[in-house]
What we know:
Helices cover about 50% and strands about 20% of the residues. It has helices spanning about 10-25, 30-50, 65-100, 105-125, 130-150, 150-165, 205-210, 240-250, 285-310, 315-325, 335-340, 395-400, 420-430, 435-455, 465-475, and strands at about 175, 180-185, 190-195, 200-205, 215, 225-235, 260-270, 270-280, 345-350, 355, 365-370, 370-380, 380-390, 395, 410, 415-420. Strands 4-3-2-1-5 form a five-stranded antiparallel sheet. The protein has a four-stranded antiparallel sheet with strand order 9-16-11-14. It has a four-stranded antiparallel sheet with strand order 10-15-12-13, with no helix packed on it. Helix 1 runs antiparallel to helix 2, helix 1 packs parallel to helix 3 (about 65-100) and helix 8 packs across helix 9 (about 285-310). It is rod-shaped and about 130 Å long.
Amino acid sequence: MDQLWFAFPLISGSLLLVADIVLWQWVPTRFQRWKMLGRVLLFVLFSMALLDGGLSPLYQVPADWDAPRHVLGTLLSIAWWLFGARTLTMIALLVMAPKIGGKGHLLQDLLGALIFLVAAVAAAAYVLDLPVKGLLATSGAVAIIVGLALQSTLGDVFSGIVLNASKPFRVDDWIGVDGIEGKVIEIDWRSTHLLTSEGSMVVIPNAVAAKNRITNFSRPDHFHSFTLTVELSSRLRPSLVLDSLNKAIQGCRELLAQPAASAVVVKSGIRVVEYEVTGYVKSRDRRSAVSNQLFDLIHRQLASTETRQDQVRPVNRQSAVLNSVGALRMLSDADRAELQRNMRLSAYAAREVVLAQDVVPEALYIIESGVVSASLLQGDTWVEVGRMGPGELIGESGFVDQTPTLARFCAYTDCMIYRIDRAELEPWLHEHSELIGALAGLQKFRASARAAMLDNKPQAVDPTGFVDWLRKRVTRFQVPRKDAPDKLS
Length: 489
């Protein structure tokens, strides 16, 4: 090298170190990549200056140098290892930044400490010619003593390493650990810092976070759930309350369609029934606003339901039964009064036939109490296809189109059933078609349900394999008894 600035290579190397420090301190962080490129260039020039000055970081400083030059050469050789470690650390962090996150400092610190440790040992071995084996043995003994003294702290450190590697949460995630909820502000060597909703800072040791169940409310990040609990009087019919809750859910536009919101009965008591509404929103910050909006919608829907109930509050037993029938809710008060005058109460014992199959009904049956079983005849066996309870109708086909029933209806338990004879309503039916329309909708729904059930009838599977072969063998060698009947009836 005969360049002017390499005429004094050791002095030039010292100036390059000063330039690196100034560059890294004064250049803004937004030029991170340019700073890295400048550091690599300065490291290359620093290496060229040392080689031009007769120094090699892999060997000791020549012994024939005078004392000032020997000290400067030793310092520059050690600085080469540390300069290289710093440059390698910055390059590694720049490459790993998208994976480990720009705000997670624990892995960066561990990686830098490991690289600098290797550089320090290498400088001691190559430049200072120290006995590395003895140094490592001594440092190992010191490490054991320090480790025992700092066992709790080291547990937090290694737990932090595990948390950073497995990433159950990141900075800015909202999590819950050991009953404490908060936003992750920082993850350092020993602890995780949470900012709670009250504005206070909670410091959780990493060992505690690693041993306890962690709930990350920020993942998945495309939807967030919330739950509302509503307690209502037991006098309100649960089906009407659930209908009002579902209408309130449909009226809230900010609720996600998928996953769908739902309303269920959680607990039923003598005076109070507890309902739970679960919904999902896109942003966690919108949960409170949507919850308040949903509470308001629920209140309005329930108020509307109670108003309708007050308007049609039953005055007698027959009126209460008619109010429980969903298919007859659209009838006017005059029509209901006409039906009440023709209702006759009958008692049925368990297993007693209420209405046979393939018979044209001559009356309309309304179940007041008990359970009625609906069955279809398949071959020689009656197969139950459904059960009916209070507030349900039987025999609507006789009023609509005079077609026979599609099933047989038997009392599954002791039942009280109201009967409305068609003959008594014959003149009235021609003038009031609302009842026929309501019963026609019910008949259509039941016919489609029966057709779907028959279409999905399971097919008999012909047994094959070893079991079928064994069954045939047993049947072949079976000797009939003389006193046995020829055929079972």
